[in-house]
Amino acid sequence: MKKTTKLKQLIHSSQLSYLMEAHNGLSGKIVEEAGFQGIWASGLSISASMGVRDCNEASWTQIVDILEFMSDATSIPILVDGDTGYGNFNNARRLVQKLEQRNIAGVCIEDKQFPKTNSFINSHQQPLADITEFCGKIQAMKDTQKDDDFMVIARIETFIAGWGLEETLKRAEAYRNAGADALLIHSKRSDSSEIEAFMNEWGGKCPIVIVPTTYYKLSADELENLGVNLVIWANHNLRSSIQAMKKISQQIFQEQSLVNIENSVVPLKEVFRLQGTEELQKAENEYFPNSSKR
Ligand code: SPV
Ligand code: MG
């Protein structure tokens, strides 16, 4: 099945589905091996792993290069965090073309202005996009996609930017009418009250995606009971790897030796396995039989 069709099915499934964050080919592979059915290519995590801020400091082509590695390394669908689409409708529709060429399954764009700022930073100062302009962007993206199953998800930042339920519902209806395949309702509260309020009024008119980073205390059952379709674990591979890298760097720096280290890191052969070294060795036997003699 095509990756686009898989993502579409996940979003429309009657069961709650989950996407796990990855930020490069390696983390994408780890997410797939863990059993997840899809990947969230997080703007926060990709920018952080590049050592820059989550405000479009990395150019969109630099992001697309990373996405190409992620897509090549995995067989499950990738939903890309497309920020604001990197400009106006024209930039956003060109992004769709480039993502489809790389076998990406869908993209999520948020109704803020370029350059965006991460939703958890200075969110009271984050201007929202004009509704009509954002609807044109969604339409242009949907009109551009060649594969009917490519997903365009519209992310609503009203709660993040200090607006209420009324504005959220108004935008939700407008973006759905513009052709969005699903809506991501973002919240930075430590509880799910904003999401619950929205779900009570929305009435299942189209699939809903959430990112419970700050309301992380919800149990699996509580998440299920919200009635949303897709949950994104948005940054947890990035955050766990930062913790692991800090710990090992500090320990090696202090001990100036690897004596106590070897058993707390994966063996090299695991790195080679994840890189697919075995496949190359088989290919060498087939296509390059005398390679060992050279
Ligand atoms: C991301 O993962 O980059 C997101 C989600 O956009 S958030 O960081 O919550 O804005
Ligand atoms: Mg983001």
Give the name of the CATH superfamily of the largest domain: Phosphoenolpyruvate-binding domains
Count of runs of 4 or more consecutive helical residues: 12
Tell me the radius of gyration: 21 Å
Head-to-tail CA distance between termini? 42 Å
Shape: globular
- Give the neighbour order of strands across the main sheet: 1-2-3-4-5-6-7-8
Major beta sheet, specifics?
A: 8 strands, parallel, barrel
The proportion of residues in beta strands is 5-15%
Number of strands: 8
Round the mean pLDDT to the nearest integer and report it: 96
Number of domains: 2
CATH topology of the largest domain: TIM Barrel
CATH class of the largest domain: Alpha Beta
Gross CATH architecture of the largest domain: Alpha-Beta Barrel
Q: Which ions, cofactors or small ligands are bound in this entry?
A: sulfopyruvate, magnesium ion
Family: Belongs to the isocitrate lyase/PEP mutase superfamily. PEP mutase family.
EC number: 5.4.2.9
InterPro entries: ICL/PEPM, PEnolPyrv_PMutase_core, Pyrv/PenolPyrv_kinase-like_dom, Pyrv_kinase-like_dom_sf
Pfam family, one: PEP_mutase
